[in-house]
Specification:
The chain has 15 helices and twelve strands. The protein has four domains: about 1-95, Helix Hairpins; about 105-225, Rossmann fold, CATH 3.40.50.720; about 265-325, Regulator of K+ conductance, C-terminal domain (Alpha-Beta Plaits, 2-Layer Sandwich); about 335-465, Four Helix Bundle (Hemerythrin (Met), subunit A), CATH 1.20.120. Helix 5 (about 140-145) links the parallel strand 2 (about 130-135) and strand 3. A six-stranded parallel β-sheet has the order 3-2-1-4-5-6, with helices on both faces. Strands 7-12-9-10 form a four-stranded antiparallel β-sheet, covered by helices on one side. It has a two-stranded antiparallel sheet with strand order 8-11. Helix 12 (about 350-370) packs antiparallel against helix 13 (about 375-405). The radius of gyration is 30 Å and the shape is extended. Helix content is about 55%, strand content about 10%. The longest helix has about 50 residues, at about 55-105. With about 475 residues, the protein is α/β, with parallel strands linked by helices.
Amino acid sequence: MQTKKMQIVIVIVSIFLFGTLGYYFIEDGWTLFDAFYMVAITITTVGFGEIHDLSPAGRIFTTFLIFTGLGAAATFATYFARFIIEGELKGIFGRKKMQNKIKNIQGHYIVCGHGENGITICLNLYENEIPFVVIDSDAEALEIAEQRGYLTVKGDAASDMALLAAGIERASGIVTCIPNDASTISISLAARELNNKIHIIAQGNDPTIETRMFRAGVDTVVYPLKLGGEQIARLIAKHYGIAPADRRQHEDVKIPEHDPGVMGYYIRIFRLFDDKKITIREAIAKTNSLFAVALKTGDGEILENPSQDTEITRNDSLVMLVQKTKSILQTDVSQKETGITWSDKLSIGITAIDEEHRNLVLLLNRFQKSVSAGSGREKIVSVFEKLLDYTVTHFKNEEEFMQKYDYPETDNQVQEHRALTKTVMELNKDKRYVFQENICEFLNSWLKEHIMGTDKKLGEFLNKQGVK
């Protein structure tokens, strides 16, 4: 604990101060540095010998100093060594585990840069279950990627070492999301040299050097600003009631925005987020579904055509068959309309964390309002992605508090953060099929449990450390 470490440091400093002044006043002709050095070699028992002959009083003082200082020095050394070793071991084992996962994938994509564009690309790759590895030299960007469960490599994407660590020789493609065309060209040259069959997609910034990019081995150049301009133009046209021509309408492959269903029947996913068990029959009634097609348990086991009397537990998922006119999840109407109201009961007493919790509640209520109002899928997805981004940032800030003040439950709470982030990522991936009201239920229950449970304990601990 942080308090105990501070106590040890205070004791060590006090012993050095007491010992230095003791030798200085007891022994004639000693300087303060001589006295300090004598304290250091005495309590650490290095055995260098006395720097000056000690008087009888000095020997008695030395004996007393050994008994009082040796234990404190040993305790300090133990804590310091444990801090270094634990940190190193966690880093080593974490990197080794990540490397083993990367070695076992093939046909994947490599995303160079986890900035604004990289985050969007990775989220969509994750949703479509396309394997990928993120390369970035920025530790903070990689931390966000790792919180979302992505495979990562830290380093310069233009270096052979980083590309090989990301498995470029087994990769199908590479995407550069670097706001620097010179860096993009360097990455493309290195990637093409290591894998001449790889598909290279590059973020372009200056159209005048597009030809150079193609010469460097790039297959496709995409200009985010141009795409953003086209999207804004479509929004303006929509506002004026004009339906602009969509380039995709002439393509051979079309991806529908919504699940088209078959003859008015649709597949939906219901996931239980409550600790209270319910039967499949109750889940069917709750969701106004026709029947359950399959059950996927929390540990991954799949049961087809399960009995309606089967009980489901927290984190179990049901694949349901619904009709368009009946696919409405039965929820508390008043809660749907009002959402969560912030109150002092939700405060944990830490100003910075409380402010982030307020913003999370605001985003959750905005998402819930969009669902209740029957807003378009695009708006609902946009709000959900903002909620996801803010949640990751919030968890990161909480973990910095825990590490700074040596919170004893840090490991457990970090694991909870990772599990919650994974669940949100899975919901985001399946958002076309999951009951949107079911997502609201999860977010409401999770946020309340998160604040009223684990964060309340963290707040109490930080308050005792004098943090407000």
